[in-house]
Design a protein that fits this description.
Two copies of one chain form a homodimer. Chain A is an alpha/beta fold. Chain A has four domains: 183 residues, FAD/NAD(P)-binding domain; 116 residues, FAD/NAD(P)-binding domain (3-Layer(bba) Sandwich), CATH 3.50.50.60; 114 residues, FAD/NAD-linked reductase, C-terminal dimerisation domain (Enolase-like, domain 1, 2-Layer Sandwich); 109 residues, Oxidized Rhodanese, domain 1 (3-Layer(aba) Sandwich), CATH 3.40.250.10. In chain A, 28% of the residues lie in helices and 25% in strands. In chain A, helix 5 links the parallel strand 10 and strand 11. The radius of gyration of chain A is 27 Å and the shape is globular. The termini of chain A are far apart.
């Protein structure tokens, strides 16, 4: 494997862009070829930086700015022998001639390359509105943007911010700007925050935002920016309201930066990203691309997909760098898009596909909604969480998962992502060997509960109905609420028959075995017990409401802003 | 699937023992058969209780005793229609007659059964020493033991405790008794605490114990208990020391309680547990066994093994209960034995096999020792952790893992256990799709680093040497320490050649390319970079020290109490 020096003319590998996988590619190329000339061209002042840390830097949670500079030019030169050229912007590429034109403070050069790795990243989406160029309207892509925003936030007299877009970045800024003492209005076009979550989980996040004083406006678009003397002083929303503000942060997501690639004739894919193969090779010989500008293969759908996440970018960078240096590399694995965000005291994350995305991809997608605790209930401080696990009814294969709650959300999400990665069936969750001691989990972890419920259904012990399906269910159905009188006192479903689990065996004659029954409790467990009793007593059509009243409640709360059929749910049995 | 009543004579299912899977079996049996008569015989006063919570109850971290009673007799009667008989001790079983004899306050009965589920659990190991029956010498199996110990700990004037045995339970008691203000001496026969960990990880736990004032005596046995007026007032240790104390807690592990089963002629296995098949059926028709008294199939070795853990006990209980009621059930999955413990500010856990156990099982076991941080270093509060990952060199299959550190140990352990469960190769860790946001992880998680290192080795980019192998390595080796002058100032390996990574390319002529080299840095990353440089410059035999000086240091510290070859390591290059 050793490559001795002088075996041939040294290869020149040029990497364009340090962030989004470029730095990884350069470092990896050096691992494979000590003799290659490796040039890293970066238009910004830094080789690379931790862009995921920007909201926390603006919010003052990260106090040392230098810590965000994870890879310094010095280190790249000294450790890796990489010729780092910051302040160098590539303006065009000629794949046939294997050259590129690069602009810098001293003028413009033509640089030849044997292999080229593009890591252009993605640019913030900016709405076509007058005033977006105002000095107090921010998009945040690099450290200079972060510095500008941080200075604006900390300026005396600044008291209110509008954040447009309630995705991961928008939510992190909402928390961080609140942390800096600002009043925050969060504007989101969709009827919910965090589009990676289904509505009944997203509502938990929205409530957490409100609980911490964020003025959340879902189903609302930004219509205009009111600029006086060049500075925006108010925003105009689609509901007609005009909100005075001191600054605006645009967090509308990103679009792959493909201009250079497209101009050079590189193929772009259906989602607008650069097309690459398993070694991150583009359609042009010798040219690789990595990071937020490329289309990865989705691990569940197998389809090309944009995935602006640091993890895949780093992995892709390693592979491109290796292949560029050695003409061979391991294949890039398909990606699941596991993502997570902390929003004040709550954590929310998702992996793989949601229900709708799974159906669009052709799966017979089903979902379980399961409440659980981080650790054993008898040990103090157990924080509640809600899991939604999506699987294919035909193959039982796990397709995706969403988790919202407190401590331990990240753990469950990572375990689910790992299970999906290895092709697990939903039923397999029942037998996971998870670490249990009182501070860390339960003998029956929420993940086990998901597996138990699924396995029970697969084996015909019960049938699951989701709150959403229940809402759409018409006709003659008996809803049996088996909670306790204390729980009913706080409300039940309209028309529900109340009969606690302890009473059920004695009062089963009050139910009609020939008519369908849906069993309901708080979270789903007692309802399942009731279902089993009824099934064995000859009731032919009994279904268990997955997630119980917690799920109904979440859907109802989510429904306030969305077009779900919650009203049906609440009125169906009247 | 529905079973109507009156289809046949109701089956009587008797469950013996509520803890350790018995309660799960009874509840599950009811799910499958509404008409069965289900009797739960428990010799103690409770159906079941959270025995994993006992140390935290004694230590005052769990204040509500009732919370430990997770399954009350009332609930079992009302919800599950189970005839709970506490204070009932089974004294003999006649499998041929399908009867058992049970003793209770009112006398003795013979009870017939159609199916019998045994959940006898495991009993604390008690040394054969005079004085073990003294009122201030404790073994803790049930809540009454816990109450007695708690009262003793909280008694005025009690200032010192000896804990014998430094397994999970011993360590939990050590922390909890310190929490109650006692001085604690922890006595362990082995040269290290926590035998589930390899020495270089266990040493971190031992240091944490010392840091919190626990007097740790490894390599020491309890030789005698000095009892005055019936009460033990001192212990005599194998090193001759006599330590005055107020109470003694025996935490020497457990042995399967198999007397009833053996007397009834049930087959016992090589490890002394009850032999069961995949449905938890014993060798006697109609008799099942679950929990700490049975032999499970180990997920890695495929061999029968004792595994006194709550998770497998619960799962086995479900399966036995289902099969006892319905004559069919899913198979019990093989178990990995994932376990975890919190010891003051540190967390330690293991899953699958350690290096020695893996070699004994016939694997070509190799290990990677990788330091890492819970989350991105640029975000405040990242706690360090150490991972040791064991894999088979022939198949690359993951065999086991150990993790010690702060926040996030449980997450990495659960992900590793899940990966092992689905047959992952060590290289697969490189492409796990883990959730990354600054508070939760890194774009390159410690688990990814393990995968990267393994993959690099598999592809011939470098060869790994462990600190233990280095210690045993004789002869003519050049140890190259590529850390910085500041780091060398705190010490390096004797005879090491110091040359920072930045200097290496310029000073490589000082090394002999014909002689073997081992590259060393703090954690292994820079050493790998150095290895790559040397390999490409024609050095034929270069190995990277996995875990770097952190690993050497851990082994050296562990060596203080163990018979490892640390001295060799420190002297080999003189």
């Amino acid at each position: 494997m050793a490559r001795s020096t002088g075996a041939g003319p040294a290869r020149r590998i040029v990497v364009v862009g340090g962030v989004a996988g470029g730095a990884s590619a350069a470092a990896r190329a050096r691992r494979l070829d000590e003799t290659a000339e490796i040039v890293l061209l970066e238009r910004g002042p830094n080789v690379s930086f931790a862009n995921c840390g920007i909201p926390y830097y603006v919010g003052g949670e990260i106090t040392d700015r230098w810590r965000l500079l994870v890879a310094t030019p010095e280190r790249f030169r000294e450790w890796f022998g990489v010729d780092v050229r910051t302040g160098h912007e590539v303006v065009s590429i000629d794949p046939a001639a294997r050259t590129l034109r690069v602009r810098h403070a001293g003028g413009e050069d033509v640089l030849a390359w044997d292999r080229l790795v593009l890591a252009p990243g993605a640019a913030p989406v900016v709405p076509r509105l007058a005033g977006v160029g105002s000095p107090n309207v921010f998009t945040v892509r690099d450290l200079r943007d972060a510095d500008r925003l941080k200075a604006a936030v900390e300026r005396a007299g600044v008291g209110h911010a509008v954040i447009v877009g309630a995705g991961y970045i928008g939510l992190e800024f909402a928390e961080m700007l609140r942390r800096q003492g600002l009043d925050v209005t969060l504007v989101e076009r969709l009827p919910q925050v965090l589009r990676t979550l289904d509505p009944e989980l997203a509502v938990r996040v929205e409530e957490e935002l409100r609980r911490h004083g964020v003025d959340v406006r879902t189903g609302t678009t930004l219509e205009g920016l009111e600029a006086g003397t060049g500075v925006v002083h108010a925003v105009r929303l689609s509901d007609g309201e005009v909100i005075d503000t001191d600054l605006v942060v645009l967090a509308l997501g990103v679009k792959p930066e493909t201009r250079l690639a497209a101009d050079a004739g590189l193929a772009l894919g259906p989602s607008g990203g650069i097309v690459v193969d398993e070694f991150m090779r583009t359609s042009a010989p010798g040219v690789y691309a990595v990071g937020d500008a490329v289309e990865y293969t989705h691990a569940v759908t197998g389809k090309p997909t944009l995935m602006p996440l640091a993890g895949p970018a780093n992995r892709a960078g390693r592979i491109a760098g290796e292949h560029a240096a050695a003409d061979a590399a391991p294949s890039m694995s398909p990606v699941l898009g596991t993502s997570i965000v902390r929003v004040f005291g709550i954590v929310a994350g998702a992996t793989g596909l949601g229900v709708e995305a799974a159906r669009r991809a052709g799966f017979v997608a089903r979902a379980l909604f399961v409440p659980g605790n981080h650790h054993a209930g008898y040990y103090p401080g157990a924080e509640e969480m809600w899991l939604k696990v999506i699987y294919d009814d035909a193959t039982r294969r796990l397709l995706g998962a969403q988790v919202v709650g407190g401590e331990g959300v990240d753990k469950r999400l990572d375990v689910l992502a790992t299970a999906i990665r290895f092709g697990a069936r939903v039923d397999d969750l029942a037998s996971l060997d998870l670490a249990y001691a009182p501070p860390f989990g339960s003998a029956k972890d929420p993940l086990h509960m998901v597996g138990f419920i699924a396995e029970n259904e697969r084996r015909g012990l019960h049938r699951i109905i989701t709150a959403e399906e229940l809402a759409l269910l018409g006709g003659d159905v008996q809803i049996l609420d088996v909670r306790t009188p204390l729980e009913w006192a706080a409300g039940t479903l309209p028309g529900a028959i109340t009969m606690s689990l302890a009473e059920l065996r004695g009062r089963v004659g009050e139910l009609d075995a020939a008519r369908p029954v849906v069993t309901v409790c708080r979270g789903g467990q007692r309802a399942y017990y009731a279902t089993r009793i009824l099934r064995q007593l000859g009731f032919a059509d009994v279904r268990t409401l997955t997630g119980g009243m917690l799920s109904v409640d979440a859907l109802a709360r989510a429904g306030a802003g969305s077009a779900t059929s919650t009203t049906n749910l609440m009125e169906m049995t009247r």
